[in-house]
Design brief:
The complex is a heterodimer. By secondary structure, chain A is an alpha/beta fold. Chain A is built from 9 helices and 7 strands; from the N terminus they run ααβαβαββαβααβααβ. Chain A has a 7-stranded mixed β-sheet with strand order 3-2-1-4-5-7-6. The two termini of chain A are about 35 Å apart. In chain B, strands 3, 4, 5, 6, 7, 8, 9 and 10 form an 8-stranded mixed β-sheet that branches. A two-stranded antiparallel ribbon of chain B has the order 1-2. Classes of the chains: A alpha/beta, B alpha/beta.
């Protein structure tokens, strides 16, 4: 048996990477981090008319019914809820950070979306048995990296879906979104921890005997220099005590990449989707 | 670019040993022997039985793959397509029906002859066979000469997968697509190989190629096409006999085992095996 086709191999690598990253945190990296990130995250996702969520919606549209029931785990400020709501799908959003939920409600209202539900909780605390087979699509976009037990959380997505499951991750390498050289400038020789769901989640699903499909999508973000600096400082504050000189370094780097006081970024995401083992089974 | 995963130890941070060997190196180790045993002479011998499989299967997987390329806007009426190792035209003809032109690179003359026959029988006249190996063809071809570079079921002829992927990317201005049979083969097939004492690599080729692509910084989209491989009993006999001949002289006992195996998997003279083809595509 090829070890790379064993579930234990990918489970082990995922957990090891998670442990390494957690061991490097010195600042607020969990709920407090996302509360603080809510506003800039919302700005980034809304930019370019929710390009990120819209591309994911386009990929999944041919595989879903017109009025699909969707579970969006870690919905953030509505990155996906807004375009999916506009596509006529009904979204149940799981989100623990109050500030994110506040942004989500404001964004949904602005987009004219009223028919959605928010479960204000961390995903691990959601009772999946009570939602057994309830959704046409159970999706998690750039959220799975936060969970140590990836396999368990993938199986929980499968529990609540009667058809499709989907995990979206970055596709620009292990350090997707933070590979501009700033890590080594600030952190020196400390190896930059990985967090992209891709390709590890794909490999794990494959080893689990699923036949996942993947679409790589390009999307754009646009945000003010101020918003980007805020985001970068919070990111590095997870790993080090920021000094005036590192703060200045971050500011200079962001300003150098801006034009017309805006930072434009072209990104890649992987949309990994597969049939829940429940698909086609009557509950 | 090579992905590595790090761990903290008493000596600091070390790379995980499990990932010390790249996907490319693993592919090379597994495929060198297989490629050496399947030379152009081998495929000249296999041309007829392979053609029987493609025609008996009504070009099924080729049609479905061409449709996926078309619906994902990689293939259109103006497309100038390169197909590497086109064989007898399993995908070439479905591609040609949806494209302006297909240049079909195929080193085995017998395969190329059958491709021309199949194209002619289907009234397809926009296929240009090039009877040569891909390395020779690539060396004489300019960058961005095609809109789509495609290779199906032949990546194992290229132990240097990175070279293949980079050359495909160089020759296409649009997209590239690799396709291969998913999984480690069907269990009955593997059991038969073991019974015959054949120690062919059991590597799951698409899974490896997919990770090689990512390792090269070319994350790819992926789709699966399930189909039924159909061929006459004679064609199946030829396939199995030729497979054994790659490893040793075929004995009477081998022939007996092959006949018995074919009889158990055939209905009304047709040998059927379910299979899935995985397509992986990326922007060049």
């Amino acid at each position: 048996m090829d070890e790379r086709l064993s579930v234990a191999h990918w489970d082990g690598l995922w957990e090891q990477r998670w442990d390494t990253r957690e061991s490097l945190y010195v600042g607020s990296a969990h709920m407090g981090y996302w509360q603080a990130r809510a506003e800039d995250f919302s700005v980034g996702r809304k930019a370019c008319d929710y390009d990120f969520g819209r591309k994911i919606t386009e990929v999944l549209t041919p595989f879903l019914p017109a009025k699909a029931e969707v579970l969006d785990v870690g919905c953030g400020p509505g990155s996906i809820l807004v375009p999916m709501g506009q596509a006529g799908w009904r979204v149940t959003a799981v989100e623990p950070a109050e500030e994110m939920i506040r942004q989500l409600r404001a964004n949904a209202e602005l987009a004219g979306i009223e028919d959605y539900t928010v479960i204000p909780s961390i995903w691990q605390d959601v009772d999946t048995e009570s939602l057994n087979g309830h959704f046409d699509l159970a999706l998690s976009a750039i959220t799975m990296w936060m969970f140590r037990d990836l396999r368990t959380q993938l199986e929980r997505l499968e529990t609540v879906s009667r058809d499709l499951c989907c995990v979206v991750g970055g596709a620009g390498g292990e350090t997707s979104g933070h590979s501009d050289g700033m890590w080594s400038a600030i952190m020196g020789d400390v190896p930059q921890p990985g967090y992209s769901e891709f390709p590890l989640a794909f490999n794990l699903l494959y080893a689990m005997g699923r036949n996942p499909e993947v679409r790589i999508v390009d999307y754009s973000t646009k945000r003010s220099v101020e918003s980007k600096i805020h985001q970068q400082k919070l990111f590095y504050a997870k790993y080090t005590q920021l000094t005036p000189s590192t703060e200045r370094m971050i500011e200079d780097n962001v300003m150098a990449s801006a034009s017309d006081d805006l930072v434009h970024e072209n990104c890649k995401a992987s949309v990994i989707f597969w049939k829940s083992p429940k698909a086609g089974v009557t509950n | 670019m090579r992905h590595t995963y790090f761990r903290k130890t008493s000596k600091g941070v070390e790379m995980n040993e499990a990932d010390a060997v790249s996907w490319q190196d693993r592919w090379r180790i597994q495929m060198e022997d297989m490629a050496a045993r399947s030379d152009t002479q081998y495929w000249n011998r296999r041309a007829e039985d392979y053609n029987n499989f493609i025609v008996s299967s009504s070009f099924e997987y080729g049609e479905r793959m061409a449709e996926i390329l078309h619906s994902n806007t990689m293939l259109g009426a103006d497309s100038n397509v390169l197909e590497i190792a086109s064989g007898v035209g399993a995908v070439t003809l479905p591609l040609a029906r949806r494209a302006a032109r297909v240049t079909a690179v195929e080193p085995a003359q017998s395969m190329a002859d059958l491709l021309e026959e199949n194209a002619s029988a289907a009234n397809i006249n926009n296929v240009s066979p090039e009877v040569t190996d891909f390395a020779t063809f690539a060396a004489q071809t300019q960058d961005n000469a095609f809109d789509l570079a495609f290779l199906c079921h032949a990546a194992w002829q290229f132990p240097d997968a990175a070279w293949l992927i980079e050359e495909m990317s160089r020759l296409s201005s649009g997209h590239c697509c690799l396709a291969d049979t998913m999984g480690q083969g069907d269990p009955e097939n593997l059991a038969m190989q073991k019974k015959l004492g054949i120690n062919a690599p059991e590597v799951d080729r698409p899974f490896y190629l997919y990770n090689v692509l990512n390792e090269l910084g070319r994350p790819a989209s992926l789709s699966n096409v399930s189909y039924m491989m159909r061929r006459s009993e004679d064609s199946a006999r030829s396939m199995w006999t030729n497979l054994v001949s790659k490893y040793r002289t075929v004995s009477e006992q081998d022939t007996e085992m092959i006949n018995e195996h074919i009889a158990t998997r055939s209905t009304n003279g047709v040998y059927e095996v379910p299979a899935t083809m995985t397509m992986m595509w990326w922007k060049a």
